[in-house]
Amino acid sequence: MVKSWVVCFRAFFFLGLALLPFSVFAENGLPLVNATPSAGGGQDYTLSLQTLILLTSLTFLPAVVLMMTGFTRIIIVLSLLRQALGTQSVPPNQVMIGLALFLTFFVMSPVIDKIYLDAYKPLSENQITMQEAMDKGVAPLKEFMLKQTRESDLALFAKMAEVDKIETPDQVPLKVLVPAFVTSELKTAFQIGFAIFIPFLIIDMVVASVLMSMGMMMVSPAIVALPFKLMLFVLVDGWQLILGSLVESFY
Of the residues 10, 43, 59, which one is the last residue of a structural domain? Predict the structure, then answer.
């Protein structure tokens, strides 16, 4: 039964995050909608201030969640791979984003499981308060981000935020950790992209030299090099190599 709940929680992670505060409002007796009698005998319905603030903050939730996961690294590497191959729109953006989301989901599965078991489940069973659930839910995300963040980036943003000396990982505030994590992810993604570009760049240079030596300067080297790039990518099983390396880079 627990396994089935874990699967459901994974599948509807974003939906659960959106609906969780509403269930907390209901448990604590906070009205989502206020009804007041009107002069004509009817009722006027207005949203409470807490609900309005909550709905406004939910619009920023997808961006916040994506910036605190491995999505940034994955989508940049896949985009650089497409540029290195020279295929303008293949795979299309929808496929790229979908693949990046599922890979992110795969990488973040242990973190999501820990959030579910340590924060969501006890909260749904009224064993802990909302504040305790938030603290326990953020802890696995902070642990994941700290493992992927360079100390130099962390020190930079800690200095910019004028944060006092940090002695333990628990003392790192999110306002410092999140931008440091994103910066480290960008650096790592560009490093992986550089390694991907090298073999395809060599093919481009060889094809361009051959065309120049044959006097075929009117023929685009990109068109001639594309089939050789695709052949090389297929022969080395490029998708398995790149996707496997991407996932392993987080551990």
Answer: 59
